[in-house]
Amino acid sequence: ANLAQAARAAAGGNRSLALKYARDAVARDPSLADAFYFIGESYRALGEDGPAEEALRAMIRINPADYRPYLSLARICLKQKRLADAAVELRSCLYRQPEEIEALALLGDVYLALGFPEFGLELLKAANAIDPYDEAIDARLEKQAAAKEKRSISYVASRQGKTFHYPWCAHARKISEANLVRAATRSEFLKKKYLPCSLCSP
């Protein structure tokens, strides 16, 4: 009962009440991994990173297969500007949940900040491919792609094909003007079920 109450309180934004119910649940049954998750998330929302990290690590000891505590720990590390630690937690999260969009995008940002632009850009592309409707990821991706290419970015495809390209790609130059379709973002083509070209890797 306490765990369900903690979930309702957290969903309602009352982190202090969620924390109380989650603590009560742990007092009754210290093997409740989700209770430790609610404790960690409640402390994190309240700005208390130390107790949050402690609760999330307790959850991992009980259920190391759940991806959520790793993502939460990464958020704490990012807040504290501990980029290398954040990368470790995000990789652990993605090992357990490979298509976790937020973790892919955050790890992309971390790699970019650590000076690994190729890895960062590929992770942002992966997140964008999973959810082309996420405008924040799309904007970060387009900014990084323009920085990498040192020019403004656009995309092209053939009306008759299912692959999109950078305009300077050898395959793109073969598309006749009558069949040429243009887009400002890669998301526009992903939403239409086009695939990125394997040669230019847009």
Give the secondary structure arrangement, pairings included.
Blueprint: H1 2-11, H2 15-28, H3 33-45, H4 49-62, H5 68-79, H6 83-96, H7 101-113, H8 117-130, H9 135-149, E1 155-158, E2 163-165, E3 180-183, H10 186-191, E4 195-196
Parallel strand pairs: 2-4
Antiparallel strand pairs: 1-2, 1-3
Helix pairs in contact: 1-2, 1-3, 2-3, 3-4, 3-5, 4-5, 5-6, 6-7, 7-8, 8-9
Shape: elongated
Largest sheet: 4 strands, mixed
The run of helices and strands is HHHHHHHHHEEEHE
Q: How many distinct helices?
A: 10
- Rg of Cα set: 21 Å
Could you give a short description of this structure?
This protein is of the alpha+beta class. It contains 10 helices and 4 strands, in the order αααααααααβββαβ. The longest helix has 15 residues, at 135-149.
